[in-house]
Each structure stands twice: as C-alpha cells, then as structure tokens.
Amino acid sequence: MITIIPEAPENVAAFNATGEVTKEDFEKLVIPRVKEKVDQFGELNYLLYLDTDLDNFTVGAWLEDLLLGIKNLANWNRAAIVTDKEGVQNFTDIFSVLMPGEFKSFPKENLYNALYWCKNGNEVEA
C-alpha cells in the first residue's frame, strides 16, 4: 500500500510504501499526486519512503513506476529514496547518473533530512 506523507513540504510529492504495493496504488494515488505537483510547480520533487521489501511490489506496480518516470522525464528535479536496504541505496545513486534531475538515497532515520533536501536541494546541517 502507498500513502501520502502528510508532513511533506508543499512542493514535494512524498509517499510511504508498506506491505504489498500494487498498480492501483500508482493509478489512484501516486500518479494523480505527481501530476498535481508538476502542474503546480513545473517540476517534480519526489520522495519514496520504502517501508517494505521490493519483492512486495507487484508487476503492475513496477510497470506504473516505470511509466511514471518516463512520462515525467523532463520534469524530474529531485528524488529521494528513503530505505535501509543497501542495494536500493546503491541503485539510486547509480540511477542518478542516468536520469535528469538529482536522485539521492537516505537511510530511514534521515526522513526529515530527505524531505528538506527534496524541498530545496540542501541537507539539514547538524
């Protein structure tokens, strides 16, 4: 299931993924929210807090995620993936070289730092 992270900054489409993630999650929640943010701000600042294993994403969810990326290719500004899975963190960092915009991984305990970075491109200073 995907839910919206309510404390996200206004210019960030932020989501929490738990349990099984389906095509319907993307169709009913993620895609409309992303479209709303792109229409409002002219760019996409995106955050996904992964509180589930990637194995819990259905094939339909993966396809919708891929289509989301392609449809918004020119709009990506910043995207943060928040997870403690090292493989996902490494993939995100490599992916950032291939896609327009900035992609960055954050450990789960740094959710608010990730939200702040998505909002303005800076990290909170300790």
Automatic annotation (TrEMBL):
It comes from the Bacteria. Pfam families: SpoIIAA-like (PF11964). SUPFAM superfamilies: SpoIIaa-like. This is STAS/SEC14 domain-containing protein. The lineage of its organism: Bacteria, Pseudomonadati, Bacteroidota, Flavobacteriia, Flavobacteriales.
